[in-house]
Amino acid sequence: MAHEAKLTSVQSNTRRRSFAGYDYSDLPFLTIVLFLLATGILMMFSASYATAIDEGEPGTYYAVKQLEMAGVGLVVMFFASHFDYHAFGRFWISFGIFAVALVMLILVLFMGTSTDTGVTRWLRIGPLTFQPSEIMKFAVVVFFSMLISKNYNHMQDFKRGVLPYFLMLGVIAGLMMMQPHLSGTILILLIGLTLVFVGGAKLTHLGGAGLAGCALLIAAILLKKNYFMTRITTWLDPFNEATSAGDTWQTCQSLIAIGSGGLFGLGFCESRQKYLYLPETKNDFVFAIVCEELGYVGAVVVILLFALLVFRGLYIASKARDKLGTLLVLGLTMHIGLQAFLNIAVVSNLIPNTGISLPFFSYGGTALIMQLAEMGIILNVSRQANIEK
């Protein structure tokens, strides 16, 4: 009887673990991702409506395209959640991803598409236009996770366990600062340093290398002195009348949008700033429209959703069955969490305007597909993790 009861329990657990075809991947994490995705598409629709009409397109133009990319991304997420993450533990796979991303970072300097401000971050291949930095974020997580998991016993040795990672991060930072892309550089450095720290590196080694990295970052900023000094000056005093019509216009309009929302907002699709007052409402500054239309309460809800995503991701990382799984989930979770924090900080003028998108909200097919693919990998780790299902 005891054996039959145990067998019945196992069968019941198996049925529950196969819920919705996900072999019962972590349902709370999946729910948070879907909530963020749905909210993001709705808010991007509202934020992009006026821009689309101004460009001679239907008001739903950008929302439909984003919805199409979301559909592709969900399919990619589904397959990624069923693709054994241990494949990233093979050197040739992880290194191949990293090498391709590195080549793209080099190509964008010579073949990239530039903006009016002299920023070159986009690479066009056929009908596709994307930022190689988005692929590099994923590549750093995958490649570093593989190397650290294989060399875990050597991580406290500076030459073998720390120096190679800092050299790679230095090359990446140098290439990205040539675009220039300060926020993306900071994000990748933070992700890489977090993985090295969790991998077992000594704090003294991290501190010394961190100081060297700061020195190199300052040197890179000095090479683009005019660009970055303008950013910093206008950040400190965005409402200065001498510059508000030019370099600080975007920041000022963003702050006006945030303030206009009040506690409960003007209502969905009722934003005023999106009517060509605030530039880039569908991209980097979509959160300003969230604040204007949904108010302080809606903004806090969105922030809490990102916080829940990070906390649940860290929980999955702590329950992963091996170091590779832990590092992959940690790195991918930190990518989304840190990028969301940096975007919200830019929109609210807590840090200088550096141009960084809000995950799941900002318009961009390649970025959205990559983010959903990353969420699929986390779900795959959760399927094999020691989590109470």
Automatic annotation (TrEMBL):
EC number(s) given by UniProt: 2.4.99.28
Please give the catalytic activity noted in the UniProt record: [GlcNAc-(1->4)-Mur2Ac(oyl-L-Ala-gamma-D-Glu-L-Lys-D-Ala-D-Ala)](n)-di-trans,octa-cis-undecaprenyl diphosphate + beta-D-GlcNAc-(1->4)-Mur2Ac(oyl-L-Ala-gamma-D-Glu-L-Lys-D-Ala-D-Ala)-di-trans,octa-cis-undecaprenyl diphosphate = [GlcNAc-(1->4)-Mur2Ac(oyl-L-Ala-gamma-D-Glu-L-Lys-D-Ala-D-Ala)](n+1)-di-trans,octa-cis-undecaprenyl diphosphate + di-trans,octa-cis-undecaprenyl diphosphate + H(+)
Q: What is its main location?
A: membrane
The membrane topology term of the UniProt record is: Multi-pass membrane protein
Tell me the GO molecular function terms. Answer: lipid-linked peptidoglycan transporter activity; peptidoglycan glycosyltransferase activity
For this protein, the parts annotated as crossing the membrane are 27-49, 61-79, 91-110, 130-149, 161-178, 184-201, 206-223, 294-315, 327-348, 360-381
Q: What class of enzyme is it?
A: transferase
Q: Name one GO biological process term.
A: regulation of cell shape
Q: In which pathway does it act?
A: Cell wall biogenesis; peptidoglycan biosynthesis
Q: Keywords in alphabetical order, please.
A: Cell cycle, Cell division, Cell membrane, Cell shape, Cell wall biogenesis/degradation, Glycosyltransferase, Membrane, Peptidoglycan synthesis, Transferase, Transmembrane, Transmembrane helix
Signal peptide residues are none
**Cellular component per GO, a single term:** plasma membrane
Compartments reported by the entry: Cell membrane
Q: Does the keyword Cell cycle apply?
A: yes
Q: Name one Pfam family in it.
A: FTSW_RODA_SPOVE
Q: Does the keyword Lyase apply?
A: no
**Lineage top rank: taxon:** Bacteria
| Family per record | Belongs to the SEDS family. FtsW subfamily.
Q: What does this protein do?
A: Peptidoglycan polymerase that is essential for cell division.
The name on file for this protein is Probable peptidoglycan glycosyltransferase FtsW
